Amino acid sequence: MQALRLVLRNLVREPRRAILTLLTFAVATFIFTVLAAIPASIDMILQKTAQTLRVYSYNADGRYLGLPARDCREIAEIPGVVGCMPMVALKANYQRAGETIQAFALDADKVAVLYPDYDLPPAVLKEFSDHRDAAVAGRLLMRAHGWKIGDVITLRADSNRLQIRFLLAGEIPSSNYPNFFMFRRDYLVEAEKAIGIPEEKHPAGFLVSRIASPELVPSVIHEIDRTFHNSDNETATMTESEAVSGLMSTVGDIRSIVDGISAVIALTILLIAANSMSMMVRERLRDVAVLRALGFNPSYVARLLFGECALIGTAGGVLGCVLALWQFGSGTTLRSVLESAGYLTITYGAALEALLAAALISILSAAIPVRGAMRVTPADAFRKTI
Questions:
Q1: Which of 126, 199, 306, 368 has a CA-to-CA distance to 325 between 20 and 30 Å?
Q2: DSSP conformation class of 233
Q3: What is the pTM of this model?
């Protein structure tokens, strides 16, 4: 208890330096927490998609070339397939250019069969089936734009030639893809025909199929691709987890990027903290000399100095973690980076990891200055000019 009082008393002697160092640790911990949460969020996304029984069929000549919607009829007849549905991806703008919404057009009567894990209430499914302009959105997307159920939303695409008005019928309760925007494909076909775009000019981006059981997934994937082998539209079918993983890989090796940035931040903060700790320990040389002259054990004096450094780093780390959890604890979309697949959630595990890193860096940065201070004799410390 006495040691803690001495540490706190030393901190308030130079409040400006202590506050600035604390804020440095807070900012670094905030950034480190967010960066550490990105790989964790990606793992969470892939883990959730791996539990679904959906497979995605793309055009084998190129993922974005599309497939005819009629191919779903053949896929639906394959043993083990519960249902098949064409899906059209529509990258649209909301309100202003650059405010991109990744929307997906699908068949209203297949949503409950293909996406049971989205937990859409029966009332929302009925609204979706009864009204051609109905749409549903994920919670993060609704929160980002301030949408409420019943709002009328206008999306623009095809260089603003295509303007579609939607009535927001409900929110997707599931945490899977919380930045999804889904609407009816027949409504999109009508809107495109009105501006002279026939359905064959905008084929389905991919075909989504749901399999009856996990053990049938490999054989159904093989059978789908075999069915369309040597046809005009050969397929490349994969699980939902593989499809999402492939989308994420288009932005490069995210883990390596995050690890590299985190290492640079840690090194930068270590150097800044080491400079601050060196100056702080230098100012404490006469205090150290007095304590040692009074008979205090060198290890006790060293613990006081380490405690002061650790307290600053830990307090800054706590502040940074609290800010990160407050800002991103409930999730935020990463659609600008990973389109529809990406969202970030700060977990307590990621915050604790960043806090431990801040405390460790604060102690390591004090190691050399404290070791040097312990080597100075009391007589030399009183003679030094500070």
A1: 306
A2: S
A3: 0.64
